[in-house]
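Handout, tutorial session.
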Amino acid sequence: MINNRRRNFRSRPQKSNFRRRSGPLNSGNSNSLNNNGNLNFNRNGSMNNINNVEKTMQKYQQLAKDAQSNGDPVLAQNYLQHADHYLRRYNELNERRENPSEKSDSDNKSLAKEENLEKEVRSATN
């Protein structure tokens, strides 16, 4: 008789979208920054907060030490590469904090370098 009992739970309505969108789905604005998924990848500004970057760098350094002491040099090297990435990001944020006015200049210089590199690649392929 217990098997014939009706269950006391409510079924939830099925969600149609995997992610909820705050605005209209097709806004027609292709130049919008929200269309690029990579710009929304960093949550809570984690890569822009110097304290978070420093803490993450130290975490990977400690994981590398632990992996090395456990006798896994491949995993230790992997963690050291992650720590190196965060160290470069940390140094970049320090430079921006010390020289906030030079940020736009460095951005313009990097764009010019990219354009020159593209020209060199085009000329080499032709």
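The second record follows below. Compare its token runs with those of the first.
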Amino acid sequence: MKIKTFYRFLPILLGLVVFGYFYLYKLVYLGNKRFKENSINERIIDSNNWPKRSTFYYLKGGLSIELSVLDSLHLKIGDSISKEANTTEFNVYRKNNKDKY
């Protein structure tokens, strides 16, 4: 009797494992790889912090930067991001009073 109940939940468990694998692979691995390989010279156009643990900053080209609450970097909409290809380090430029970066 116990084996029949196990087989009943096996497709659900298998579906969750497959969904989790592809979800993490597409979002985490491919997103980080795309960010690392491209050179960036764009502005931040939007932000979203609905999880309340991290803030997502969206760039014009479709890429995003995720910062956790513990990070000391505070970005704003309109800041310019510059990054060389094949690195993960980026520079942030903010406009001053005279509208120059």
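Points raised in discussion: The longest strand covers residues 40-48.
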